[in-house]
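Researcher: Next sequence.
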Amino acid sequence: MDKLRIVGGTPLSGRIVIGGAKNAALPLMCASLLTSEKVTLENVPYLADITTMAKLLMQHGMLLSMRDPAGTLFSEEGSSGRYSRELTMHAKEITSITAPYELVRTMRASILVLGPLLAREGRAKVSLPGGCAIGTRPIDMHLTAMQALGAKITLEEGYVLAEAPTGLKGAEIHFEKVSVGATENVLMAASLAEGTTIIHNAAREPEIGDLADMLNSMGANIEGAGTETITIRGVSALSGTTHRVIADRIETGSYLAAIAMAGGELELVDARLDTLGCVIDAMEQVGVHVEQKDDYLRVWRNGSGLKPMAISTQPYPDFPTDMQAQMMTVLTQAQGDSPITETIFENRFMHVPELTRMGANISVNGNTATVHGRTPLKGAPVMATDLRASVSLVIAALGAEGETIVNRIYHLDRGYERLEEKLTLCGAKISRIR
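Model: Next structure:
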């Protein structure tokens, strides 16, 4: 099993190209099931979750082809290269409405085939999903929303069985709490439903807007994406399209955290300042400076020491749960106490014992972890427990004294493309070992 070996203490310097967002690409891939015409996605990240989703879509009869599967990072002169990777999908015919357990169990985003299959075929059989062990993340809201659109839902032997033989009908859907995945499933299903659907308390993440933009380019009629209320007027059919996946805001935030820990200066090419929400405010409050340039963000750490702060994870545009572990790592180097409250997932402090092994002083009480800083970190063998925890350990190692070995990095490969290569090009001492 692969590991990462990291020797800390080297400031970062150079350019990093931010890849396409995994959390945008996965629902966009599922949306290609809604049309019998070709859909091409540009700027697709090459990640384990993307490969899993591709295999799942092929199970449904999708034909896929990828151009430039390796992508490019930099030219020999060191200037930034753009990802030219394209994924073309063609679901001319749906040959199976079953999303099997062996493909779904490793990735929660697999539930996003439910809406498109129901909308196009009138039925779907989807295994209950898996993913990172960071909480229960129930799919009740997905199922209730499909029922509101007229689907009959039953659970049988670990599968969701959904039927809408006369088609889906528009409805008003009131989410009791914000759910990105449920909002995405409704957006896709309602695009082909008869009548108008209104989503109240909709998720506002940039990935929602990206999905709506692509669906509209396919002929859908969606208004209000990016706000709490989204209106979808159903159409009879959708066409093919070409769409560019937005830059990954969590990857961007992770490199901001890396600068906070290691020091130095980076240029984050293709990063989108307008999608980062409260992450920018938090980083600047701690002591990381961000400057918007033409096609990149210039980021560097101040020279007066990092400052403590209080954080509470909330739905976008507030501080994202997907940046909680990275920010906790940064705050180990702040002068003072920093309380972090996790409101989204109940098991998302599993990185705390690993950071403690490296010298961090963190106390946990319920859903609040208080980081007592500043505590110098020292290299140690650590174990990744989930996707974002894994990158937080890499970030910690960059600022630690000595050698760190990060085990179980298969989590990392689900969401960060060629992380060690990008960091190596910027001076980090990091390598993949077995």
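Model: The chain is about 30% helix and 25% strand. The two ends are 6 Å apart (CA to CA).
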